[in-house]
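Journal club prep, notes for RB
We'll compare a predicted complex against what the paper describes. Inputs for the S-adenosylmethionine case:
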Amino acid sequence: MNYIEYRFSISPVEPWREILMALLAEVEFESFVDTENGMDAYVKADLEDEKSILEQIQSISEAKIEFERKEIEQENWNAQWESNFQPIMVKDQCYIRAEFHEPKPEIPFEIIIQPKMSFGTGHHETTHLMVEFILETDFTGKDTLDMGCGTSILAILAKMKGAAYTEGIDIDEWSVENSIENAARNQVEMTVKLGDAEILGYRNFDVIMANIQRNILMDDIPKYIKVLNFGGELLLSGLMEHDFEDIKKKCEENGLNFVSKKQRNEWIALKFIKN
Ligand SMILES: C[S@@+](CC[C@H](N)C(=O)[O-])C[C@H]1O[C@@H](n2cnc3c(N)ncnc32)[C@H](O)[C@@H]1O
């Protein structure tokens, strides 16, 4: 399969977030890079999906949207990504880079990611917020789950912070393969599984992280809570500001207490505890 790359330039920038959410429902985003005008989005879609992507964009926005569209052969995808990937620092404590960037040994946590076709480089707000939460969380000796692991960036950081057992689960085969590669790249031991919340139930966790999206989380939160130990924490993202009340209510109905919220632009991440 070939891939379609869309490089968006939107003015004014504001409707961009809604467009992004609509697109997320349609296609799988591969990576995002913030730019001055909005964001470069690298989208994996087959040619049949394309009509609906364009219809979605046009139905949402009255803004001026310009985009370049390029078909990229699968084997060129990595080169395309590499030329756009900039290292990123979170809270002066976690440096996320590719193999070809200079290391920063003075930074406490350094993660090397080659995302290939998977989501999770730290550039997107939701990953950034989850990394911030993880930096503040005690993982020592804890069993952790990264649901919707993508590149497994979150699982790798949890393990670097002392987690005893770390598992990543994703519905996407590319992400499972990529997670295994990234774990090896960072010399981190973790278990990676293909699946969704239906495969939970075989063990419990002390910290569950899930950066997916609102509708999936609304369905799956009760399943996560069932396998969360008492005293355990649930970290959620893939959410926008207006999702806050619904997600909070869902968690509280299922026995969690709200702890805190983080926000970058319209994106939020939430922390809950099971008491
Ligand atoms: C927004 S990405 C997050 C990746 C990474 N954890 C991060 O924080 O950057 C969401 C990931 O969830 C996966 N996913 C989507 N629906 C899922 C589901 N129902 N169960 C598990 N994973 C799912 C996608 O394949 C994707 O890799």
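Talking point for the session: The pocket of S-adenosylmethionine is lined by residues 118-120, 126-127, 130, 146-150, 153-154, 169-172, 175, 196, 211-212, 216, 238 (CB under 6 Å).
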